[in-house]
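USER: Write out one fold?

ASSISTANT:
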Amino acid sequence: MTKWGHRPHWQFEGVLLGSDEHGDWLGFAAGSTMSRPGASYVAPVDQVCLVPAAGDDALRGWVATFHAAHGPLHTYVDMTTPPTWHVVDGGVEVHAVDLDLDVIRGTTGRVWVDDEDEFAQHRIEHAYPEDVCALAIATAERIHAAVTDRVAPFDGSAHAWFDERRSGAVDRT
């Protein structure tokens, strides 16, 4: 992930678990280190991440992370530019620009949009283009409704990918 203006943000390594109708699934083991300038985070539980399937970019401006049981939250969805895959040094990377807004489902089931203040500040401070702002806002509204209503892949079905994470990468395409 980067922030607008090619500013560095979170970087971490994972394993490609496979793909389904929702997109590509990546796995991160408990203990994985995620870092960004000025901060690092060690994942307390296994996590799986969904990069949405190719298609209409207006529907792909997000990346979702699901936490295993007993994690600090259930679902964390970053609003982003549409993610893209890149071949780098013999491996592959997913790139997206984090647009501040996040949809979160906590461990109690409560769902909320986070960092609206940060988005409001950054859209001015970093001169987000109006079409990028409109995409982030519309995506946050759509994802909030999907997470609240437990629409797939936000219906708990993502947890099947934790078994894939434990057993190794499998391509379901």
Summary: The domain at 2-163 is CATH 2.40.380.10 (FomD barrel-like fold). Helices lie at 116-125, 130-148, 160-167. Residues 169-173 have pLDDT under 50 and may be disordered. The chain has one domain: 2-163.
